[in-house]
Amino acid sequence: MIKNNLTMKIAILGTGGVGGYFGGKLANAGCDVTFLARGEHLKALQLNGLIVKSIKESFHVKPIKVTDKIKDIGKTDLIILAVKAWQVKDIAKDLLEDIHDDTVILPLQNGVLAIDELKESLNAKNIIGGLCRIISKIESPGIINHFGINPTIVFGELDNKKTNRVQKIKELFDIAGINSKIADDIQSELWKKFIGICVSGLLAVTRTTYGEVRELKETLALMRELLYEIYVLSQKIGINIEPDFLEKTISYIDSFPYDSTSSLTRDVWEGKPSEIEYQNGTVVRLGEKYGIETPVNRFIYNCILPMELKARKL
């Protein structure tokens, strides 16, 4: 059974915009947190601690526990997986060294594939479902910048039972000042996030911010078509999503800062490997599997694919 609150040993795997912010909140509250980071980011964290600039409340945690080797973390009660979606498969194999029978793994990746990919290497009993909502990034080594959206984590058991362990995690988040919710239907919540995040590819192709894409009627129409395609796909698969969800999603996107973008968008623009396979690429493949046409998502995926292959030097 998972330990009580501050006595949990927590690992944050991936200290970027997501892991840096939420892990930072936990560490700032006095939790026993170890971060995984690499390169110049690791060096800065070791030297100066973790600096989080936020539109809500900035803070500085120093010193912090940080390493570039998963094996050095040791057995852990809660693992928050905050790496990029395309890194999940490889890192899952390395987690075996840090897991005991009651370890809980909470993935916060974009997309709907992380749970299945974790199950390929790990026992399903150790995995719960999760997602987060935040616009943040590494501003410079050791510094996280949260600049949009009220940060939130939504999570739950894969069978949607309200177990003791998810209640304890909720208590932990409450203590750390992290806005969180135990999902009534985690699959539905994952798909709702998935539908909205796939707009990132549209921003990348049109080289626009959220504000720019929604103010031009032509790109706004493309965004609506993109969202509708994924909603239709979700209904074919049997995901429980209310009919007015698309309008709610568009209203939610309207609340984003005008100049904000997503991590996928920035990765594509900067010539870095992105999560395109886990976003619009997944839509295309599932559309083919279930017989649903996805022309807008296919166009976006096909446009970004050459840049993705170049970024990965494939």
Characterise this structure:
By secondary structure, the chain is α/β, with parallel strands linked by helices. The protein folds into 2 domains: 180 residues, Rossmann fold; 122 residues, N-(1-d-carboxylethyl)-l-norvaline Dehydrogenase, domain 2. Helices cover 45% and strands 21% of the residues. The strands form 2 sheets. It has a 5-stranded parallel sheet with strand order 5-2-1-6-7. Strands 3, 4, 8, 9 and 10 form a 5-stranded mixed sheet that branches. Strand 1, helix 1 and strand 2 form a beta-alpha-beta unit. Helix 7 packs parallel to helix 11, helix 9 packs across helix 12 and helix 12 crosses helix 13. The relative contact order is 0.12. The model has no long low-confidence stretch (mean pLDDT 95).
- Helix/strand/pairing class, anyone? alpha/beta
> What is the strand arrangement across the widest sheet?
5-2-1-6-7
Shape estimate: globular
Number of E strands: 10
| Main sheet specs | 5 strands, parallel
Overall structural domain count? 2
CATH architecture of the largest domain: 3-Layer(aba) Sandwich
Radius of gyration: 19 Å
**What is the CATH topology classification name of the largest domain?**
Rossmann fold
The CATH class designation of the largest domain is: Alpha Beta
